[in-house]
Amino acid sequence: MRLLVTGGAGYIGSVTTAVLQEAGHEVTVLDDLSTGHRDAVPPEADFVEADVTDAGRVLGARRFDGVLHFAARSLVGDSVADPAPYWRTNVAGTLALADAAREHGVPRFVFSSTAAVYGDPVTTPILEVAETRPTNPYGASKLAVDHLLTSYAHAYGLAAVSLRYFNVAGAHAGLGERHTRETHLIPLVLQVAQGRREHIAVYGTDWPTPDGTCVRDYIHVADLARAHLLALDAAMPGHHEICNLGNGVGFSVRDVIDTARRVTGHPIPATEAPRRAGDPAVLVASADRARTILGWKPDLPDLRRIIGDAWELLHD
Fold this sequence. Notes:
Blueprint: E1 2-6, H1 11-22, E2 26-31, E3 46-49, H2 55-59, E4 66-69, H3 76-81, H4 84-103, E5 108-114, H5 137-156, E6 159-165, E7 167-169, H6 185-194, E8 200-203, E9 215-220, H7 221-234, E10 240-245, E11 250-252, H8 253-264, E12 270-273, E13 282-283, H9 288-294, H10 303-314
Parallel strand pairs: 1-2, 1-4, 2-3, 4-5, 5-6, 6-10, 7-9, 8-12, 9-13
Antiparallel strand pairs: 9-11
Helix pairs in contact: 1-7, 4-5, 6-8, 8-10
């Protein structure tokens, strides 16, 4: 297939581009490089430096079989402090992309959604039928796009799949996390092991969990990328499928730090800090629907492997 990957210079987009190419697909990457990196785009992929709202000129230049849409703003705290760019990029930008896909007859649309649409869940593991009640503009903007795709599938026959990620980590094909403002636990812990930070903060040790720290569902980025490949085949005209992507197993903050200590051989000092407002105690996915609809299951669910791959890339 000939595919357009928006946001393909970012972490997940670049790994997915590599996986798509490994499977024999022809990929064009569109990215404005506001947060992505040009050298993360696999050299075999065509590259267009442009905003997602300019995707129409790319889609109109040749026939495409599908769009995989990763381009978005994704910092939760940022979205609360300054929501306008999140609505502009994540919603208006996706609307422009969906309209361009419809205009140029692109049949498949795979969307990078998020577990943030669920907010603070009532029950875990989280099912796709759980109530969606995002607690920040980032999650709300992603939920708005899910609604957009449902309506476009119904009205225009679009074959759409939304993949709601939980916590993505690890590395694949020489590609890993590289954020100017890092907010994710595993890369922050590895920065301590590298000597780039003095310690890692643990926000709350009195949560209602086995060891008192928050529990999260971590998924290897290669498993995540492979789900997008499967979503292209599973997409059906006139249908919008929504699937959670996670291991279905939770790891606590202490689990992550202790595993990173074993992987890196470094002590990784940790300091206790107050709870952060809005943090749920437990976020774990049910990925049963992804198994049923996509035929997907995580091949690399081991936390040691996830952290180990990320650590190995830092030392290549």
